Amino acid sequence: MQKVVRKVLRAVADYDPDYYDMYADPNEAFFAQLYLARIRSHADAADIRPPAKVLEAGCQAGRLAVPLAKIGFEVTGVDTSGFALRRAREHAKQAGVAATFVQGKVQDVLSDHPDWRFDAVVCAEVLYLCSDYREILRTLVGAVRHGGLLCVSHRPKFYYLLEALRRYDLRSALEVQQRSEGPFRDTAYYNWQTEDELRRLYESLGLTWQALYPIDRFAWLGGLNPAQMTSEQRDQLRELELASTEATSMARYVLVIAAR
Q1: By three-state DSSP, how is residue 89 classified?
Q2: Domains, in order of start, for the chain
Q3: Whose CB among 153, 164, 181, 200 lies 3.0–4.6 Å from 169's, allowing a Cys bridge?
Q4: How many angstroms separate the CA atoms of 15 and 60, rounded?
Q5: DSSP bridge partners of 53
């Protein structure tokens, strides 16, 4: 019944009190800045500059797509949720930028547009939920022009190990150590990788590995809430996060950047 009510509210009133709008959330906006800084640095080095074409797969409400469009990139965002895309279009409108948003599974959308090629393809905080993440990655690689970049975030194995240990759940910690995907703490499906596993995966797809960056290390490890910080403190935290190069897998996410 609750699902039916939510669907009606989304369709009729464009409202869902339980929807997590990552664009509007101040903490997620902070972490988006970490993604954007890393992506822009590598894009500049590859001479990928506005108005280059960028695809965001699993764009949700436009957390990365809208800022990328504000920079001047020609952005296409794809998501399965029509409600999320309505939010994304509204955020783009309020930001005064143009972006294209397409509803559907990214595999289907790209199959329907086999001629689409992008200078950079971005996929953040999506694939760790997908059991077919290897196949999705292959599809995304095919959408990157030669010389372009693929920028994808994954969940590191360390994240699930520490989350299990924080709950004194040693059984789940052992399971995480012994495998790389499946249910975590008897809940939904997830997948996780070490840096070496990710490097082998991307190289098997014919890509040139460029870098692996932690996304949300110190806030996660320290239990910090950027939204509750002063502007100066957020600037300092951002500087800490972007300067961090050691033990890159000790973070909530890791961002892989590879070139085709």
Answers
A1: helix
A2: 21-156+193-259 (3.40.50.150)
A3: 164
A4: 15
A5: 74
At 4-13, the pLDDT tens digits run 444 545 554 4
pLDDT digits (tens, 9 = 90+) for 174-206: 999 999 999 999 899 999 999 999 999 999 999
Which residue, 184, 176, 252, is CA-closest to 219?
252
Helix (H) or strand (E) holding 135: helix 133-142
- Is the CB of residue 70 less than 8 Å from the CB of residue 36? no
Residues in a beta bridge with 74: 53
CB 225 within 8 A of CB 27: yes
- Torsion, Cα 245 246 249 250, to 10 degrees, reads -110
Q: What is the DSSP string of 141-165?
A: HHTEEEEEEEEEEE-BHHHHHHHHH
Q: Going by C-beta distance under 8 Å and a sequence separation of 6 or more, which residues neighbour residue 213?
A: 34, 38, 248, 254, 255, 257
Q: How many CB atoms lie under 10 A from the CB of residue 236?
A: 12
